Each structure stands twice: as structure tokens, then as C-alpha cells.
């Protein structure tokens, strides 16, 4: 199932404070971030119906970091007569993206959620750990199911939050969901699957890795507005009284979902107002706009140049290969055709992938980790490591993806592909493997500068160990 690009705005900072009710209404539930109410109801009803089919596994959030319930990707027998698949937030991120994409009329046909679940096409993880890979995953990764499109909500600085928690509070004796585990295990997993994927349970909130947040002068629960009960109370209240008010069937469905999946935890009440403060942790560059030329001197401008991020940009003339989507670059350790450019790359640098004179994808360089699964699973090609230079591994052995190369020394960098399905004119004419794109070229190419700015923002979140976006 293919993906698509959505240009979302980033969360707005409000360093001077704003009423929580106003912030939730105008910022978190603004119409430009919302899925069409009718699509929400339809997807929820399809999900509820398909969960009655014993042949469709329950997709539920993993629990903890060890044990069988922490392994994602493989169908597990828990004694229900139907399998269970443990996931991260990928199923919800994928479905949210598909519904938002359709609502913006960028793709005509409706997502067939029932068929995707039947055919095991719903993603269950962004990445798999070594043990998860060795167990033989049976469900796809997020990048595969989204057509190689990096989730736009993450690029823009949003986290997909849930009204009802997707994992039971096993240490809380008052949690009605956890209480079902022993007495009614089938209902326990069904409701967990419903909470995990139903679009009634979604709302966007600022990523904690990119924003610092306060409510009444103190940090919210988990330092995350999306986890704080006061925010969730306002989300529920405003969805019922404003967003769904003109859609009575959608509102009835929302109330029924809260009653069924919430197990009586969600009660109707007037939420308490407070003051919320949201501050960006680092300044995001402003996307450049094409500047008018000075009269009589085409191409020149008196306007200041666009604000570019503090990173280097490289153009890879390797096409969009299996390496691009497998998350690495590899080249011989020789001074030919720009191969040694890999040794110059630092974490956060941006890669423009050139194919047939068009930039087709954009990636960000990751820190080198010799224990990363992408290298471990290709360990047979790495006979001896010779050290790490910046973000580049030097090793002796074979090429990581191309067979029968004559060289014995190679270079490798780890990358995350954050954008694809694009086609912009190349940055530099160069016939070799890699070339740097200097700032002056980007200043004259607002289209490429915009890609670099967005990719850098996405990579910055990843480099700050952005694990909260999948929790």
C-alpha cells in the first residue's frame, strides 16, 4: 500500500502561557490536524467488526522490555484460539496517516482496513530489535506499509497520543483493563486491540523531545501533554461538545467507544482549566520562500538568505537503492568518485538521493553503532572493523549489498530515510558517487532548502533518542 506526502504545520510555542481549554481547542484539535469525522466513525466500525473474526490476530501494544509480550512482529499463541501480535505505535500512526491523507484528497480510494488486517499488511513496528528479527517477523515495518514515507506528524514535531491508554496498568489494582487479564482474557486482548487502533482514540500533541511543556508552572505527567489527564479531559470534552457536535452519529459512536473500551473509567465531567506553556527546545529554521530578483539583475536579491540548519548536505548519485531503504550507505574505502565523502559525514547531516537527474528521496545520517541490527544482520560481510571516523565505519570484508566487488576495504554509514516519492531537479551535476551541496546552492534553490530543513528537523528528533513518539 503506497504512502503519500502531507505538509503539516508544527506545534506552536506559547511561552507566555495560554488557557489549557483554548490551547487544546485551537492547537491540538484545530481543523487542519483532524481526520474527517465520518472517516473516523467508518474506520472504527470496520475495526470493531473485523475483531470479531477469529482468523484476524489482535494487534496490541507490547508490554515492558523483556519477555514474550515485548517481542513485536510475530504472531503469538496466548491460548485464545487466535494469535496476538505485539506492536509499538506503528499501527495507529499508519492508520492515522492513511485517513488524514484521504481526507486531504491526495489519494482517491479509501483504505480497506479489514483487508489490510486480513492480509497482514498493517505495520507493527518502526524498527525491530535483534531478537525480534531472529524470531522471524510476520508483519511488516512502518516504512514498508507507508510506501517509504517518513510519518509527516513526526517530521512536523507531533506525537500520536491516545485518550485511553493502550497498555494495561498492571501494577494498578484499580485499572479495570488489567483486571480483565485473568477473568476474561479474550475481552482483555480485544479491548487492547480496539484501543490500539481505533481513530476515536487518537489526538496529536507536541513531541516531548522537541518541546518543553508546563501546566500551571509544573511539568505535566511524563513531561508530555499527551499523557496528562487534564489535557485528555479537555480533548474528550471538546470532541463531544464541538468537533463532533454537528455529527450526531459520530458523537454517539465516540460515547459508545469510551463506554465500551473505557470500562467505566471515563465519566462525563467538566474539565478544570489551567495555564499551559509550550516552548520549543531548539529553534526550527523557517522554510525559505523564493525571493524577488533585484530589478535589472535577475537571480540577485536584497533579502536575507534562508535560515538553513547547522549541518552539511550531500548529494548521493546512487539512485534510490535497497541501501536507501535498508538504512545504510556503503562504498569502497578508496579515493575515487567521492567514495571518501562517507568519512566526512556527521550525525544529522542530510543526504539528497539523486536518480536520473532528480532528487527522489532524502535521508539523515545517524550516529555509528557497530551493534546496530543493520550491521549485525550483515555480519558475514564484515570480517574486521578498522575503526569509526565521525559517523562512518571502516571495515575489511565485502560490500554490504553488492556482491563480487573486488575491493576488500569498505566504508559504511547508517541513515534514516525521512522523505521519498519526490522528484526535484538535482542540486549539482556530478558523475561520481557523492558530492557536497554547499549553502550557496541551497539558498538559490528554495525547493531543496525546504527539503533539507524538514529532513534536519526529523533527524534532530531521532538523534535526541525520540523513543516517546512510539510509546
What topology does this entry show?
Elements: E1 14-19, H1 20-28, H2 37-50, E2 58-61, E3 84-87, H3 90-103, H4 113-118, H5 130-134, H6 142-145, H7 152-156, E4 158-162, H8 176-183, H9 185-197, E5 202-206, E6 211-215, H10 229-243, H11 248-262, E7 275-280, E8 313-316, H12 322-326, E9 328-332, E10 350-355, E11 358-365, H13 373-376, E12 382-389, E13 392-397, E14 409-419, E15 424-425, E16 434-436, H14 439-443, H15 446-463
Parallel strand pairs: 2-3, 8-10
Antiparallel strand pairs: 1-7, 4-5, 6-7, 8-16, 9-14, 10-11, 11-14, 11-15, 12-13, 13-14
Helix pairs in contact: 1-10, 2-11, 8-9
Structural class given helices, strands, pairing?
Answer: alpha+beta
Main sheet: strands, sense, barrel:
9 strands, mixed
The oligomeric state of the chains shown is single chain
Helix percentage: 25-40%
Mean pLDDT: 84
Radius of gyration using CA atoms only:
24 Å
Silhouette: globular
How much strand? Answer: 15-25%
Number of helical segments with 4 or more residues: 15
Please provide the count of β strands: 16
Poorly predicted regions:
284-303, 465-470
Give the domain tally.
Answer: 2
Distance between the termini: 24 Å
Amino acid at each position: 500500500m503506497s504512502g503519500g506526502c502531507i505538509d503539516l504545520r508544527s506545534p506552536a510555542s506559547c511561552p507566555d502561557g495560554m488557557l489549557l481549554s483554548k490551547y487544546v481547542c485551537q492547537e491540538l484539535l484545530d481543523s487542519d490536524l483532524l481526520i474527517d469525522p465520518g472517516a473516523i466513525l467508518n474506520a472504527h466500525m470496520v475495526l470493531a467488526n473485523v475483531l470479531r473474526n477469529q482468523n484476524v490476530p489482535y494487534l496490541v501494544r507490547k508490554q515492558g522490555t523483556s519477555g514474550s509480550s515485548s517481542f513485536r512482529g510475530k504472531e503469538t499463541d496466548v491460548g485464545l484460539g487466535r494469535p496476538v501480535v505485539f506492536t509499538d505505535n506503528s499501527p495507529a500512526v499508519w492508520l492515522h496517516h492513511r485517513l488524514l491523507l484521504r481526507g486531504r484528497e491526495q489519494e482517491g480510494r479509501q483504505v480497506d482496513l479489514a483487508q489490510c488486517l486480513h492480509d497482514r499488511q498493517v505495520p507493527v513496528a518502526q524498527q525491530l530489535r535483534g531478537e525480534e528479527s531472529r524470531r522471524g517477523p510476520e508483519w511488516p515495518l512502518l516504512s514498508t506499509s507507508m510506501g517509504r514515507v517518513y510519518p509527516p506528524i513526526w517530521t512536523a514535531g507531533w506525537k500520536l497520543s491516545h485518550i485511553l491508554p493502550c497498555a494495561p496498568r498492571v501494577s494498578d489494582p484499580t485499572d479495570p483493563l488489567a483486571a480483565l487479564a485473568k477473568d476474561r482474557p479474550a475481552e482483555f486482548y480485544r479491548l487492547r486491540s480496539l484501543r490500539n487502533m481505533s481513530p476515536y482514540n487518537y489526538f496529536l500533541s507536541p513531541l516531548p523531545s522537541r518541546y518543553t511543556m508546563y501546566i500551571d508552572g509544573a511539568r505535566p505527567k511524563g513531561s508530555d501533554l499527551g499523557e496528562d489527564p487534564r489535557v485528555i479531559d479537555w480533548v474528550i470534552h471538546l470532541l463531544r461538545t464541538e468537533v463532533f457536535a454537528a455529527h450526531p452519529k459520530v458523537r454517539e459512536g465516540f460515547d459508545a467507544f469510551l463506554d465500551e473500551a473505557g470500562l467505566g473509567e471515563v465519566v462525563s465531567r467538566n474539565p478544570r482549566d489551567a495555564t499551559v506553556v509550550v516552548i520549543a527546545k531548539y529553534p526550527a529554521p523557517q522554510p525559505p520562500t523564493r525571493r524577488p530578483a533585484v530589478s535589472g539583475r535577475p537571480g540577485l536579491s536584497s533579502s536575507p538568505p534562508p535560515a538553513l540548519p547547522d549541518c552539511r548536505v550531500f548529494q548521493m548519485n546512487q539512485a534510490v537503492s535497497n541501501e536507501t531503504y535498508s538504512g545504510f550507505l556503503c562504498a569502497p574505502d578508496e579515493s575515487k568518485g567521492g567514495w571518501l565523502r562517507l568519512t566526512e559525514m556527521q550525525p544529522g547531516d542530510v543526504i539528497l538521493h539523486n536518480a536520473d537527474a532528480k532528487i527522489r528521496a532524502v535521508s539523515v545520517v545517524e550516529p555509528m553503532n557497530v551493534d546496530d541490527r543493520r550491521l549485525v544482520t550483515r555480519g558475514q560481510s564484515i570480517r574486521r572493523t578498522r575503526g569509526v571516523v565521525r559517523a562512518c565505519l571502516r571495515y575489511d570484508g565485502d560490500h554490504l549489498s553488492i556482491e563480487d566487488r573486488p575491493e576488500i576495504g569498505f566504508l559504511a554509514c547508517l541513515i534514516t530515510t525521512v522523505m521519498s516519492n519526490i522528484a526535484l531537479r538535482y542540486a549539482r551535476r556530478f558523475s561520481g558517487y557523492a558530492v557536497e551541496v554547499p549553502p550557496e546552492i541551497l539558498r538559490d534553490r528554495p525547493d531543496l532548502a525546504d527539503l533539507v530543513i524538514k529532513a534536519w528537523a526529523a533527524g534532530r528528533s531521532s538523534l535526541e533518542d525520540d523513543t516517546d513518539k512510539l510509546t
